[in-house]
Amino acid sequence: MVAIDGPAGSGKSSVSKASARELGFDYQDTGAAYRALAWFALASGVDPHDSAMVVGLLEGFGYAIGTDPDDYFVRVGDTDVSDAIREPRVSAAVSAIARVPEVRHYLVALFRSIIADTDRPGIVVEGRDITTVVAPDAAVRILLTADEEVRMARRSAELSGHSAEAVGEQLASRDRQDSRVVDFLNAAEGVTTIDSTHLDFDQTVSAVVELVRLRTA
Ligand code: CDP
User: Measured in angstroms, how far is the CA atom of residue 160 from the centroid of ligand 1?
Assistant: First the structure.
């Protein structure tokens, strides 16, 4: 298994998905689960800052994610939320629910069961705490980083229609809040840092795929 951590806008999701495709592996986006729970709280009229109410939502969460890199979807119950969970109102709510210990505990168990269920030769799992908490014993552990300006520019290009400044501010604030919960800016022991500041998308995917092939040869 390949564990990839990194801050917002580092290219984790797109690079992980493309690397999984090239390796013939499954792919798990763990941020989608935190985002889906934040979406579910908003849809249920629950204040994302009300931890007890958020924990109360876990039982009826009904979360499903596609792990085939060519068939990605995120569902809550019968609702496809693949696009809705990227909306800025969800991004703004997600850190509040991600810092609740019961939420993390519940989702980490869910991530591990999805990892155990893969029927491919491997799975690329990406998030904030995969190399340290979810799968510290993964065969390959990577921290994908990039300079802050580059990350902001990439993210605002993804979210067309939103001003670069607003996107940048939201991303920096989310990183600040998230880094109080998990240190995803410094590589833990045994974790290889791939800095994509000066790499384009294909070069970053190649760096990941080469490292995986080297480590698992
Ligand atoms: O791709 P981006 O960094 O924008 O975020 P994401 O991976 O979609 O994750 C969204 C949010 O979920 C993060 O801001 C964290 O608050 C939380 N998260 C987490 O706490 N642990 C993870 N393993 C993944 C995401």
Answer: 20
CATH of the domain at 105: 3.40.50.300
154 lines ligand 1 (CB under 6 A): no
Give the residue from 116, 121, 109 showing the smallest Cα distance to 213: 121
> Domain range spanning residue 62?
2-216
Chain centroid, CA 12 distance in Å: 7
Which ligand 1 atom sits nearest the alpha carbon of residue 133? 23
Domain count within the chain? 1
Q: State the Cα–Cα distance between residues 29 and 88, nearest whole angstrom.
A: 18
Residues 6+ apart with CB under 8 A from 86: 35, 159
What does the pLDDT profile of the chain (217 residues) look like in tens digits? 999 999 888 888 999 999 999 999 999 999 999 999 999 999 999 999 999 999 999 999 999 999 999 999 999 999 999 999 999 999 999 999 999 999 999 999 999 999 999 999 999 999 999 999 999 999 999 999 999 888 888 887 777 666 777 878 888 888 888 888 888 788 888 999 999 999 999 999 999 999 999 998 8
- Among protein residues, the one with the nearest Cα to ligand 1's atom 21 is 128
The ligand 1 atom at the shortest distance from the C-alpha of residue 129 is 23
CA of 204 to the centre of ligand 1 (A): 20
